[in-house]
Design brief:
globular; about 210 residues; about 30% strand; alpha/beta; single chain; 6 helices; binds 1-O-pyrophosphono-5-O-phosphono-alpha-D-ribofuranose; binds magnesium ion; 13 strands; Rossmann fold; two-stranded antiparallel ribbon; binds uracil
Length: about 210
C-alpha cells in the first residue's frame, strides 16, 4: 500500500509471532513490544536529516555526522502505546514525549480523548505517533487530527499490527503521514479487533484481563 512500510526483518517477524501467541506471558509481551519498537525506530528514523560537525578523536580531528534539527517528539497513544514509546526512547533517549490518552468506545468504536500533554514547541518538531494496533484507524486519525490542530506538520505513524481497513482509512484521512508497521492483517471482526491479530494490546501489555 502506498505510504505504508511493512518492516519484514526476520527478527521483527519472529518477535511478532511470539506476540501473537496467546500463551505469551505479560512480562514477555511487554519486553517484546519494547524490542520491536527499537527495531522499528531504526527504520522510521532512517531518513532523518544529518549535518557534519568536527569531532576530536584521541588521534585526530575529523568530520563526523550528527542528526540535524530539533529533538523529535514521540507520542504514545495511551495506554498501549507506552511500551512502544519505551522502546523508541531506548534508541532516542533525548526525544521529547507527548502523551495522548484515547480509548475506543466499545459500542461505536469511536476514539474518545481523555488526556493530552505536549511540549510547547511541538509544532516545530518531527512527531512520531506510536500505538501497537491500527484497527479501524479511528484512534490514529483522531490522534493526528489533534496533533495537526496543535500545529504539527511533520508526522509519522508507527504500529505493530496494521489492519488493512485501518491503514486505508488513515492514509485516506492523512495522506501526508507515512505508516511503518511490523505486519499487516487483512481484516477486523465484528467488535473491531484485528484478526488474526494479537488480542487486546493494552490488556496484554498491562495484565488487565
Ligand atoms: O484503530 P482503532 O479501531 O481506533 O483501535 C486501535 C486502538 O485500540 C486500542 O486501544 P484501546 O482503546 O483498547 O485503549 P487502551 O490502549 O487504553 O487499552 C489500541 O491501543 C489503539 O489505540
Ligand atoms: O485487535 C485490536 C484492536 C484494537 N485494539 C487492540 O488492542 N486490539
Ligand atoms: Mg488505545
Amino acid at each position: 500500500m502506498d505510504g505504508v512500510t511493512i518492516v519484514g526483518h526476520p527478527m521483527i517477524q519472529h518477535k511478532v509471532t511470539l506476540l501473537r501467541d496467546k500463551h505469551t506471558s505479560v512480562s514477555l509481551f511487554r519486553s517484546l513490544v519494547r524490542e520491536i519498537a527499537m527495531l522499528l525506530c531504526y527504520e522510521v528514523t532512517r531518513e532523518l536529516p544529518t549535518t557534519t560537525i568536527q569531532v576530536e578523536t584521541p588521534l585526530a580531528v575529523t568530520d563526523a555526522i550528527e542528526i540535524a534539527g530539533k529533538k523529535l517528539v514521540i507520542v504514545p497513544i495511551l495506554r498501549a502505546g507506552l511500551a512502544l514509546a519505551d522502546g523508541m526512547l531506548d534508541l532516542l533517549p533525548s526525544a521529547r514525549v507527548a502523551h495522548l490518552g484515547l480509548y475506543r468506545d466499545h459500542e461505536t468504536l469511536e476514539a474518545i480523548e481523555y488526556y493530552f500533554k505536549a511540549p510547547e514547541d511541538i509544532a516545530e518538531r518531527l512527531v512520531i505517533v506510536v500505538d501497537p494496533m491500527l484497527a479501524t484507524g479511528h484512534s490514529a486519525i483522531a490522534a493526528i487530527d489533534r496533533l495537526k490542530g496543535a500545529g504539527v506538520t511533520n508526522l509519522r505513524f508507527v504500529c505493530l499490527l496494521a489492519a488493512r481497513p485501518g491503514a486505508e482509512a488513515l492514509r485516506a484521512a492523512h495522506p501526508d503521514v507515512p505508516i511503518w508497521a511490523a505486519a499487516m492483517d487483512e481484516k477486523l471482526n465484528e467488535k473491531g479487533y484485528i484478526v488474526p491479530g494479537l488480542g487486546d494490546a493494552g490488556d496484554r501489555t498491562f495484565g488487565t484481563r
